[in-house]
User: Fold O-Antigen ligase from Allorhodopirellula solitaria.
Amino acid sequence: MQHSIQLGTSRFVVADILCGLCLLGAATSLVPVFVALALVLSLVVFLSSIALGMSRLTLLLLCALMYTALSGLMTGGVLPSDFATVEFYAGEGRLFLYYLPFLALASLSVPRAHLRTLERFGQMIILVTLPLALLAMVTAQDALPTFLTRSHHGPGGVYGVLCLFFLVQTAATRRWMPGVWAILALLPVVAASSRTAIVAIAASFVFVVIYQKNFWLATRLAVVGMILAAIASFVSPTNAERMVSVLRPETYEAVREHYQTARWQPGNELSEDMALSSADAEWNVLGRVSMSKHAFLQFLDSPLIGSGFGRFNDLDARTGYRGLYYINTQPYRTIHHLTAHNSYLQLLAELGVIGTSLYLGFWCAAFIRLERAKRMRGPQGREHRWFYLACQSIIVFLFASGFVSHSLAAPAFGLPAAATVGYAIAMTNDRSSEVRGRRISYQAGSQTSLRARREETVVELLEEAESDPVEVNA
Assistant:
């Protein structure tokens, strides 16, 4: 029993360290040592768990990653030597950095202990980086994205996850302090002017309100959401203007017009495509339309298996049968960070329906696993119910962000999601093994009792036969 407690405690400590490194690595990309340590620890944990057996979620994610690697190797989009270069993981290889912590945490079986350590990690990151967010808002410069993740999507992903984590906690537990942390976590999102994160947070609000069917919880979330929206529009009028500009009918008309004329191909500058268009809208919006159209056309050419992992940014030199399979075979390849700015189109273009189904299947299976854990009876289930709900809202956040960014493969989204959703999966693994152990014990006990009853019946029949031999002969 003591050995079992020590083993559970060690797994809990490993999961805590891994989650802390993921959060630090996502929030401070200029300190790559945190990301490197998180990846090394993830690899060690995963390799050590193979001998102990892997969960179904781990196997599903492993199949998705293996399919991705084989897709790149078979089509020439990835070379074996690329996996040993840093440039690869700064480009297309970011997908592997995204899912490796999930692979490790989904392999762990963590005792369902308190979540105080995870809360402290999030609070520490908010306290350390909040002055930078305020500086960025006051000076109206791009200081926050440049210092942290070199992209406004980075702070949106990191602090969007933290905002939802504390927001659902304060709404479900009726504690006011997590609400303060949720408001503080929203400030870096506003400072980075990330419309993607703001819209995705709003979508997560709607999900929690509708999915829970709890009037009081819905009321509290609606009130907190309105407060956060008011704060966001007050502290960053520029961001509010950008949000309004996207919602204008003229923008949708410009998007439709530009989609018809977009002809962007890898190797060309997006500015050339913009010059050919007469649409009047933000360059940022029209550029995403050009890249999304290129990804959609790639998918239509090879819908089943895609054009090959890592081939989105490569020059077209493909062969096959359009509409069935149409893959790159020539070595015209580049390692680049440019994406379709749409996770679904990006996955469909490179991996086809098969690869996309594997990744979306992993997320849907994780969502269902959390739902089952949330409905668990007993005091421990009630204690962690808000955490499972928060992780479900984070999955919705990733799905909503995926329509206008590559949130299903960008580490700025994946590392904080691993620290929360991955940790919750590890907790459900412990519950699953616990239930499985009880089921096995029950079955073993049932078989033992059945065997005992059979033996008693045989003994009774023998005693009757000895006492009445005439009746037996008859």
Notes: Residues 411-467 form the longest helix (57 residues). DSSP finds 19 helices and two strands in the chain. Residues 115-422 form one domain. The mean pLDDT is 74.
